[in-house]
Amino acid sequence: MVVFSPSILAADFTRLGEQIKRVDEAGAEFIHIDVMDGAFVPNISFGFPIIKAIRPLTKKVFDVHLMVEEPARYIDEFIATGADIITIHYEADRHIDRTISYIKSKGIKAGISLNPATPVEFIKHLIPKLDMVLIMSVNPGFGGQKFIDYSLEKIKEVKELSEKYNSELLIEVDGGIDKSNIKKVVESGANVIVAGSSVFSGDNIENNLMELRKVL
Ligand code: DX5
Ligand code: ZN
């Protein structure tokens, strides 16, 4: 089964609540929430108050992607916003095993994200304790960028590791996914698809989501 996690970074923020309800009703399983700190990535998005404000609008899984330096400083606050999955970047945390264990000790699902240039090999030993691996298929920081093709090879590598060490692992892919490449992404082993622009564009959420599913 393939799970859809629309990224609200591409939503119309003047009508954020309404658009979240629409992706919920259109059948998206997760809501992807991109938090950017202006240090780990060259952009600033939104933080705790926004996530808290939208939490009561849907029961769907809050899939919180932290593009934040030293995310360990903020795990408790993100848990308090109602996050269901917290994903931190391998490149942002020198003691990532400790932070992952901490997130899990709080009863929340934990994920690690890898920038395009970061090898899958670096997290091999963590696979058994992870709930999710997030392969970035663009350089993080902005929506609407072009999919980087070598990500497909990395998805396959994660899939192989999950077959060996963790059959429950969620394999999420984020960045530049649209109708033209979603099939290849899923065939390579992804089971959670993040889509920003290709879901929210043209205020056509329901139809866009349906078109993406149809290709699979
Ligand atoms: C990029 C974010 C993505 C982004 C995806 O740094 O992590 O979640 O919103 O947007 P699209 O689907 O437009 O590439
Ligand atoms: Zn993201």
Structure explained in plain terms:
By secondary structure, this protein is an alpha/beta fold. The protein has one domain: Aldolase class I (TIM Barrel, Alpha-Beta Barrel). The chain contains eight helices and eight strands. It has an eight-stranded parallel beta sheet with strand order 1-8-7-6-5-4-3-2. Strand 3, helix 3 and strand 4 form a beta-alpha-beta unit. The longest helix has 15 residues. It is globular. The N and C termini lie close together (10 Å). The model has no long low-confidence stretch (mean pLDDT 98). The structure holds D-xylitol-5-phosphate and zinc ion (ZN).
Précis, in short:
Keywords: Carbohydrate metabolism, Cobalt, Isomerase, Manganese, Metal-binding, Zinc. The chain has 216 residues and is of the alpha/beta class.
